[in-house]
């Protein structure tokens, strides 16, 4: 088998090179942005103090790594974001499943969700601070509320749009209601649940960063706002780079878990 694959690769080197190069081409937009940034920074089109070069940002990243700022502040931001997202998943998935499989629950909750979904939950943050204090609790609660709706909605539609013939077949084989939920409904809704996670994850990061900018002494949001107040704009952009890397890694991790669990519907 190995010899056959090797021989096929040798016979078609162009195809092999193209299969490797297409992964590089996927990143062309990132490369273009970085090149454009460096050209504008080196050309001096903007104030160099406000628009540092990539080298200055990279140097600042190294300094922040050495003095422990990256690890320290990232720990707080990730902890708050994942706590809120985890709570939203634990609550949102069962609620979405219940709405999809029970007409009474759907009728009770659907108007409430439709009414409250458009409300920017950040408007409630001062109340959360008054109730929960100035530490991590109000931030986690706010992340929970912002991520709850995508989890409920995506789970609901995933479970609602199941092919009814699957459920009828399970019933005809004597499967209990719990068995149908576990063996039919949840696997069928799982792709939508992971879609909800991919939508909610960056929302969780954004909300945490915003709240850390408003009032706290730790986290990447605080690091960025403190650096801006100190006129260290290379540190500001370094913080932005860290957030981008964290978001990318978490998204790839969700996709990896999805592909491992939902092997019958693997996507890139």
- Listing every helix as H and every strand as E from the N terminus to the C terminus, the arrangement reads HHHHHHHHHHHH
The overall average pLDDT, rounded, is 84
Cα distance, first to last residue?
Answer: 26 Å
What is the SS-derived class? mainly alpha
Cα-atom radius of gyration: 24 Å
Number of strands: 0
Q: Percent range for helical residues?
A: over 70%
Strand content: under 5%
Shape: globular
The major β-sheet equals: none
Which regions contain 5 or more consecutive residues with pLDDT less than 50?
5-9
Number of helices: 12
Task: Explain how this protein is built.
- Helix content is 81%, strand content 0%.
- With 268 residues, it is mainly α.
What's the helix and strand layout?
Layout (H helix, E strand, L loop, with lengths): L1 H10 L1 H13 L2 H16 L10 H13 L2 H33 L1 H14 L8 H8 L4 H24 L3 H9 L4 H38 L5 H10 L3 H29 L7
Helix pairs in contact: 4-12, 5-6, 5-8, 5-10, 5-11, 7-8, 8-10, 9-10, 10-11, 10-12, 11-12
């Amino acid at each position: 088998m190995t010899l056959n694959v090797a021989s096929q690769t040798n016979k078609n080197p162009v195809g092999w090179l193209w299969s490797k190069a297409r992964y590089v081409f996927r990143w062309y937009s990132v490369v273009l942005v970085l090149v454009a940034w460096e050209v504008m920074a080196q050309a001096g089109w903007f104030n160099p103090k406000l628009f540092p070069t990539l080298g200055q940002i990279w140097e600042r990243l190294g300094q922040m790594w050495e003095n422990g700022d990256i690890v320290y502040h990232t720990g707080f931001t990730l902890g708050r974001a994942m706590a809120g997202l985890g709570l939203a998943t634990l609550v949102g998935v069962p609620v979405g499943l219940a709405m999809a499989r029970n007409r009474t629950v759907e009728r009770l909750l659907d108007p409430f969700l439709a009414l409250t979904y458009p409300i920017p939950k950040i408007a409630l943050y001062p109340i959360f601070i008054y109730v929960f204090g100035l530490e991590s609790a109000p931030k986690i609660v706010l992340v929970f509320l912002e991520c709850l709706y995508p989890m409920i909605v995506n789970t609901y539609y995933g479970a609602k749009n199941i092919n009814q013939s699957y459920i009828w077949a399970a019933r005809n084989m004597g499967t209990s209601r719990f068995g149908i939920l576990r063996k039919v409904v949840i696997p069928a809704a799982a792709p939508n649940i992971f879609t909800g996670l991919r939508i909610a994850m960056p929302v969780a990061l954004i909300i945490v960063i915003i709240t850390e900018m408003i009032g706290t002494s730790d986290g990447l949001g605080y690091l960025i706002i403190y650096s801006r107040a100190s006129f260290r704009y290379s540190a500001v952009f370094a913080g932005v780079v860290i957030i981008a890397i964290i978001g990318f890694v978490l998204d790839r991790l969700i996709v990896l878990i999805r592909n491992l669990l939902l092997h019958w519907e693997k996507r890139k």
